[in-house]
Amino acid sequence: MDPTQQQLWDADAARSYDTPGTGMFAPEVLGPAVERLALLADGGAALEFAVGTGRVGIALAGRGVPVTGVELSGAMAARLREKADASQLPVVLGDMATTRVPGTFSLVYLVFNTLSNLQTQDEQVECFRNAARHLGPGGRFVIELWVPELRTLPPGRSATVFRAEPGHVGFDVYDVLEQRVVSHHFDFDERQTRATGKSASVRLGLSPHRYVWPAELDLMGRLGGFELESRHADWSGAPFTAESRSHVSVYRLPAR
C-alpha cells in the first residue's frame, strides 16, 4: 500500500468525510447499496474492506447483517468508533490487500471506487486474493468502481472535468501510460464571493488512483479464484452499458 494513502486519510479528512443526509450519505444513494448488500450477504456475515467512518457498514449492521471492517486509517476508524462500538462493528486496522481477519464470511465488499486507491496492479490482484481467503464456498466479493472517462479527453489533453457545481469543481489528470489518475477537488464558498465581491478561500484535495477497466477487473477476479456473477450500472440494478460511468460487479467463488 502506498504510504501516501495513510497521509491522505488523516484526522482532517476524517472530520470532513461524513455529510449526513447529503452526497454519498443521501438516502437515495446509501439505501440501495445497503439493500443490495443485505441480499447478497444471504444470511451470513459481511466484511467491508476500507470501512472508513462506517457509512455503509453501520447501516448494514443495522439491517441485522454482522459486519466487520478493515481500515488503513486510524483517524477514520476513530471517527467510526464515535458512532458504533466494537460490539456493533469490529474494526481491524490494516491494508485491505493483505490484512487477515479471523472468521469466515459470506460477503466481502469494497465500495465507492476504493479499489483504485491501491496503486499497482499487483496490489489490486492481491485484494481479490485476500477477499477469497475470507470467504467460504460460494462466497461473494462485491466491488463498486468508476469507469475511466478517457473518451472525454481531447487529443493532446490529459485532464477531464468530472464535476462542476456550486461550491465544488473536480477534475482528473490522467497518465495513460502508467494507468494512473490524480483527482483534484476544489471546494469554495460561492455565497461568500457573491456577498463580499471578494474571492472565496479555496481548499484543494488531491487523491491518486490506479484506474481499472471492467475487463481487467474480471481477469483479476479469475486470478483470485472468482467468476463474475453480475454487473450493473448501479446498486438498483440498472443495466451496464457502454455509456455507464460506474458499475457494481459481483464476483463469486465456486460453491465447492
Automatic annotation (TrEMBL):
A Pfam entry, by short name: Methyltransf_25
Record keywords, A-Z: Methyltransferase, Transferase
InterPro entries: Methyltransf_25, SAM-dependent_MTases_sf
Keyword Methyltransferase: yes
Origin: domain of life: Bacteria
E.C. number: 2.1.-.-
Gene3D superfamilies for the chain: Vaccinia Virus protein VP39
Domain annotation Methyltransferase: ranges: 47-139
GO function terms (MF aspect): methyltransferase activity
GO terms of biological process kind: methylation
Name of the molecule in the record: Class I SAM-dependent methyltransferase
Protein source organism: Streptomyces doudnae
